[in-house]
Amino acid sequence: MTEPLDRRRTILDAALACFLEQGYRATSMAHIRQKSGASTGSIYHFFSGKGAIAEALLREAIAGWAGLALAPDQSVEEQIKTSVGGLVLWGLANPAQAQLLDELRGLAGHDPELESVRDFLSFGQDAAAAAFAHMQSTGAVRKIPFGIAHALMLGPAYAYLRNAPATRPDEAKRIADLFAGAAWQAVRAGD
Amino acid sequence: MTEPLDRRRTILDAALACFLEQGYRATSMAHIRQKSGASTGSIYHFFSGKGAIAEALLREAIAGWAGLALAPDQSVEEQIKTSVGGLVLWGLANPAQAQLLDELRGLAGHDPELESVRDFLSFGQDAAAAAFAHMQSTGAVRKIPFGIAHALMLGPAYAYLRNAPATRPDEAKRIADLFAGAAWQAVRAGD
Amino acid sequence: MTEPLDRRRTILDAALACFLEQGYRATSMAHIRQKSGASTGSIYHFFSGKGAIAEALLREAIAGWAGLALAPDQSVEEQIKTSVGGLVLWGLANPAQAQLLDELRGLAGHDPELESVRDFLSFGQDAAAAAFAHMQSTGAVRKIPFGIAHALMLGPAYAYLRNAPATRPDEAKRIADLFAGAAWQAVRAGD
Amino acid sequence: MTEPLDRRRTILDAALACFLEQGYRATSMAHIRQKSGASTGSIYHFFSGKGAIAEALLREAIAGWAGLALAPDQSVEEQIKTSVGGLVLWGLANPAQAQLLDELRGLAGHDPELESVRDFLSFGQDAAAAAFAHMQSTGAVRKIPFGIAHALMLGPAYAYLRNAPATRPDEAKRIADLFAGAAWQAVRAGD
DNA sequence: GATGAATGAGCTTTCATTCAT
DNA sequence: AATGAATGAAAGCTCATTCAT
After folding, report:
1. What CATH number should be reported for the domain holding residue C14?
2. Mutate to test the interface with C, among D158, D171, D177 (most CBs of C within 10 A)
3. Does residue D53 belong to any structural domain of this protein?
4. What proportion of chain A, given as a percentage, has pLDDT over 90?
5. How far apart are CA C89 and CA D60, in angstroms?
6. Residues with CB under 7 A from strand F
């Protein structure tokens, strides 16, 4: 079997490679076509456009990073630290995907072809906001608007990952703990 | 003289208006031409391209925000709080410019036509790194790499300003203090 | 049996709906596929292409309108009035189909994929020409080329139906009589 | 001067040639580009799109045909005969342009890129309607809706020109008179 | 009878930039 | 200083049709 079983998979892989190499904007459908070996029509048979490919990749990338809200038996402190630390660990282990995520987050605000990406990301935000509201109701975290809390917790991680140098796994663990600790300090209920 | 004295000014104003309305990427030279009333040739007489217009606007925007390193007679705590708080105050008072700054920061990493913007921004980073190194040498702040410290201090502000709601001046002050305080807590020398 | 007996019928109905909604040119095979629920392959199993679907629909539409030459025991005046009046009545009662007929008549002249439609329509013309030649041989109508006579008789009806407003049945009868009378006046043997 | 003075003119001429040869729909911007020798950008510098080129050509074509309402000192009968006969004479003398007019009239109803053509044509209709209303107020023509009168007067001419055979000038005069006479008979005030 | 993946030429349009005047 | 005509590569996307299963 020289022919790949799943053409859709081939296209996604090629697109991811292109996006990581040159960025989303600089990647044209022609690039993806050449890299994947699929025809133009085949690509559009599976995806409605460039934005839809990005969205599919983003869903996969984020599925690879555990997600903000999970493990309900953890303490609030552990939940937050796990979320933030997990993001940093994932980002340092997958720097290219993290940069893609960052680029798409930036572009989604302005680019109509990334509307579905915008919706997808804001959906994640809503879930996080709900989880945080619950934490506030137990008195575990500061009574501040979610927008501010979110910025305090994840802003440093996003900012760091944007320009992070290559990092060895053991270092990555220490850095992740550092950001996780800072996030907790920033939002824990005041003394 | 019905003709404005400074054509260059007219072009910059028109470009800023376009960038704020539609974003940098979605703004074409034709848009700027129409909004400014200047001819294509005139625009290229003053600016070498779209990236150069963006850079000029960015320099003006950043000049409007005091800058990281200043007032050498302040304490380290005051310096950091002033820097971070000042960024937040400026961003809440000039939300459109703050969004432009954010968009350009994101694009500069990938877009060749924004190379000079990238250089300009990284120059600011270098100055900030030097100032932080000095603070570390006095023992006032944690001994962590500048990249991490920078992310801890300014990451939350950048993240918040990206999606910040419209804010009244008195509220803005409180929010700025909140981010300034958090930045100081995150990097002050450990207890 | 949830599946309809006649897939061909389903496809024709869907295609007609599409053509009426958006016009023939703007309707893609994909539209027909979606509206009909049939697969691409199924459509091509029954029809050799988009033009063939149009032709099939046109045959049905025209079958619904009695046709030019009929009822040989009528007087020439009645034959002509019946033909023209019948066209107008049919067109006002089926405005959407009439518009489709008009669109296809216009396109068939230029579009290679509508060659069979062109042939079909010109076949009708030939029959009408023969009938008219017979009328001329009896001295009942003017000795003018059929092309001119045809334009005089049916031109007004086609022109009116193209933009006709919605019409109540009783009004339609009066309008049809008006066009029928004018057609007869235009081609009857001169006084 | 080998270089044409007016690039816009060159483009229009090339476009007209293409439209007449292959029809509007079958003509691509690439065809116009090749035939005119102008670059893509140059074409779009002068025209906002294919529809705008068609509109410009249509305005010229119609300007070449005197127009419905003119010479106010003519009798109503002369006005109508001049209009209809003039259309036929023009159409037989310029069969290609007449076919283009016909094609565009047909397409303008459905094609969004011909919206301006539709507006232009309906504007002409409005003027004709006003002129006809005036004729009705003097009692010279039948009291029938303008839509019907318009179809009676011009429908035959349009229908004939669509398929008209090549015609010698002297024959054209006779045919034009025939259609003009029929138009007048169809709408003159009843005896 | 039926499916839908695959094709690829072709489409209109955008755009930053150059340069003769 | 200023003009605007001219450039042409590149973009995202459509679509009728084919064919192996």
Report:
1. 1.10.10
2. D158
3. no
4. 75
5. 37
6. A 27-31, 40-41, 44, 48-51, 113; B 3, 7, 38-42, 44-46; C 26-30, 40-41, 44, 49-51, 113; D 7-8, 38-42, 44-46
